[in-house]
Amino acid sequence: MAAIDRDYARHVTFIEEGQDISCRDALKAIEPRGFYIRQPPKPHELDQEITDDSQLFQTIHMGAAVVAEETWRLLLDGMVDSPFSISFAELKSMPKTTITAFHECYGSPVLPPDKALWRVGNVQWTGVRLADLIRLANPKTGARYVWSQGLEWGSFANVTAKYFEKDITMQKAMQPENLIAYEINGRPLDKNRGGPVRLVVPGWFGTNSTKWLCHLTLQDGRATGPFTTKFYNEIDPNDPSRSRMRPVWMVEPNSMIVRPKPGEVLPDREVEIWGRAWGCEEIKCVDISVDDGHSWISPADVHLEPRTSYEWQLFRAKVLLEGKGKHHLVARAKDRIGNQQPLSGRRNHVHRVDVYIS
């Protein structure tokens, strides 16, 4: 084992061949049952760099799991040479990492992805790096996906599942930003946030960050549950035939205007526009229009903060609005590999704000 593996190995219980280990005994109840969503504030109300938990959206598909911390264990098995399990106390005794990352909801998987939601926040997650635990288990050649299972069970959109199950690619899983998290903004994860432990996959939609995590398994194919086969797949917009499907994984470029506020009456023609931009890939420029996208201010005139982790990025620019009355402000982000927000018809289309000059 590498040095880091020895440091981690003393905290876990390795599983002997043929040994049967359950990771679901910690589930006490599902309470309340059924789908629940707490909508976020409007974009102009998300004016803090770090989003307080009270302002962060919540999405629960089948009900909130009530978990006993003292009996919780995480099982890591599948295509590995050294499967193991770990308790909550053992997990917290491992070297911890804090990552600042935007956290975005994809939206309803039963509706077309054609409406922008701006259901997003920017938070600090604390936990143990997923890649370190995977390395500790010694993955076998051919393991291509990491499946994650939560403790909740029930029905969503008239489909019953024995547990919530998602997958991510091994390539993504081995990146250093992914966490087995037990804190948000320096506080323990509560029940509705997926506590005591959840997966966090920065840069990918929140549906991939499995809550009430209890089981990770490495496999050579994609997970077979309804949340990967029936839900959270979409038509690939890059396919001209509109027939190829793709998983809901990476977040495409997105942005929102925080100031001015919608409908705001401004006393001066010179206006500072500022907001946030984010995506799986770092945003490299933000275009701003004051005439509903008919013309665009040069990106050179828009200040954009660089990204250090996976946090959303601040942009701001001073513009001169011509004449009194209504003006239509638009922000459009482009990432480092050339992906750009569409003007309409997609779940990440541009944000428009109307303001008035008195």
Automatic annotation (TrEMBL):
GO terms for biological process: sulfur compound metabolic process. It comes from the Eukaryota. It comes from Exophiala bonariae. Keywords: Metal-binding, Molybdenum, Oxidoreductase. GO terms for cellular component: mitochondrion. Residues 249-346 form the Moybdenum cofactor oxidoreductase dimerisation domain. This is Sulfite oxidase. Its cofactor is Mo-molybdopterin. Gene3D superfamilies: 2.60.40.650, Oxidoreductase, molybdopterin-binding domain. Residues 64-225 form the Oxidoreductase molybdopterin-binding domain. GO terms for molecular function: heme binding; molybdenum ion binding; molybdopterin cofactor binding; sulfite oxidase activity. Pfam families: Mo-co_dimer, Oxidored_molyb. PANTHER family: SULFITE OXIDASE, MITOCHONDRIAL, SULFITE REDUCTASE. InterPro entries: Ig_E-set, MoCF_OxRdtse_dimer, Mopterin_OxRdtase_euk, OxRdtase_Mopterin-bd_dom, OxRdtase_Mopterin-bd_sf.
